[in-house]
Every structure is written in structure tokens, then in C-alpha cells.
Amino acid sequence: GAVVSQHPSRVICKSGTSVKIECRSLDFQATTMFWYRQFPKQSLMLMATSNEGSKATYEQGVEKDKFLINHASLTLSTLTVTSAHPEDSSFYICSASSSGEQETQYFGPGTRLLVL
Amino acid sequence: DQQVKQNSPSLSVQEGRISILNCDYTNSMFDYFLWYKKYPAEGPTFLISISSIKDKNEDGRFTVFLNKSAKHLSLHIVPSQPGDSAVYFCAASVATDKLIFGTGTRLQVFP
Q1: Angle CA(A97)–CA(B87)–CA(B103) in degrees, nearest 5?
Q2: Mean per-residue pLDDT for B41-66?
């Protein structure tokens, strides 16, 4: 079955530094990738949708200059949290879908970010 | 390999009838299971959960059943309503750590 990986799985950084999270589809071409942030009570907030080769579409309230998303290839999308602050500490999850399967999303295992 | 599987990509149910969404998992270490509901262009929202010490959890029209021996989870919606039409994801975790999601089942409730 389709597998999506995320790296790193956990990261601890100092306030003010930038952190890059990678999301890879291992055995399929992901034309669309989604980035989510998990909040208390388990719900996931969609941050942005990215299509390969084009700019990401950010949801309302998500700062695109702070959360940089790059979808450079059909198997890789990256989320960079720039100048991270403690309030950015969260669980970030990506998912991917391939052309023709818009409603089937393959989720990555998530990345836990802790900003000190 | 997919540790959490939703083998039915779609389900169509008449309003008022029961909707049953299924989920299978392979990792016997999973001890916490959740169902999420997702509308287009939104993130999944938490719906209902169950821990492995239980075999049933009910919340209004939604009931989740857990069969640990079969490694099977199901969500029952009774009665189904048109507003229930969405994509449903099941997810599992070990000790409420990172969530492993299924691929989703699209439910359509028609009048």
C-alpha cells in the first residue's frame, strides 16, 4: 500500500531558529500534499494544500511567510517553520494524494515540534 | 505497509438508515482508536474515540465498536442524516502518541 513518511519524527529547537519538516511519498506520485497541525482534542487544522510545481494554497489565518511550503517534486514536500516560537510547538502531519484519488489521503506519521 | 486500513473508499446510505464504516489494523500495540470526519477543504475533526480496554463507545447517533481479536474497528451512525455526508478517517495510536490514519471512506447519505 501507499506509504508516506515524515522526517524528523521529533525535533526540539530553540526559539528563533527555523525547522524543516520533510514529507515523502515512498511508492507513489503525490500530485497534492496537505499539511495539518494537530490541536488539543485531537482535531487537525488544515494549514495548506500544495500541488507539485506550484505555490501552496494557505488556509485563512496561516502565515505563509512563517510556514514555508515547497512541493518541488511528486514525492517530496517540505514545511519550514521560520523563526519558531514556543507557540509553534505542536504535532504537524502531512498527507498526500495522487491524481484521480482526490478523496483518498495517505497520512504521514507526523512530526512533533517542541520549541524552547 | 498500511497499519490502518479502510478498504471501502466509498459508501452510500439512505437517510434514516444505518451507516457502518469499517477499519482494520495490523499493529496489536495500538491501544487508542479515533474516528475523524472531514468536509472538503477542511481538516479532519475529531468525532469519537475508544480505548482498547473497551469494546464499545457511544455518543448520540455515533457508536464505535472495537474487536481486538479481529483487529477491527467500526463506526455506526444511526440514523444517518444528509449532513453526515463527508469523508471519515479512522486513526490509531500507541499510548496516545502519534496517530496512524487510514485512507478514508467517503460517506454519502441521500434522501
Answers
A1: 45
A2: 90
A110 touching chain B per CB within 8 A: yes
pLDDT in tens, chain A (116 residues): 678 899 999 999 999 999 999 999 998 888 889 999 986 656 678 899 888 888 899 988 999 999 999 988 889 999 999 999 999 999 899 988 886 555 577 888 889 999 99
3-state secondary structure chain B: CCCEECCCCEEEEECCCCEEEEEEECCCCCCEEEEEEECCCCCCEEEEEEECCCCEEEECCEEEEEECCCCEEEEEECCCCHHHCEEEEEEEECCCCCCEECCCEEEEEEC
Nearest CA in chain A to B92: A109
Residues 6 or more apart in contact with residue B69 via CB below 8 angstroms: none
Instruction: Report the 10 Å Cβ neighbour count for B44.
Output: 30
Q: Which of residues 48-77 of B touch A (CB under 8 A)?
A: 49
Task: Check CB contact under 8 Å for B45 and A43.
Answer: yes
| pLDDT (0 to 100) of residue B93 | 84
**DSSP sequence for A1-41:** ---EEEE-SEEEE-TT--EEEEEEESSS--SEEEEEEE-GG
- Chain B residues whose CB is inside 8 A of the A36 CB are 43-44
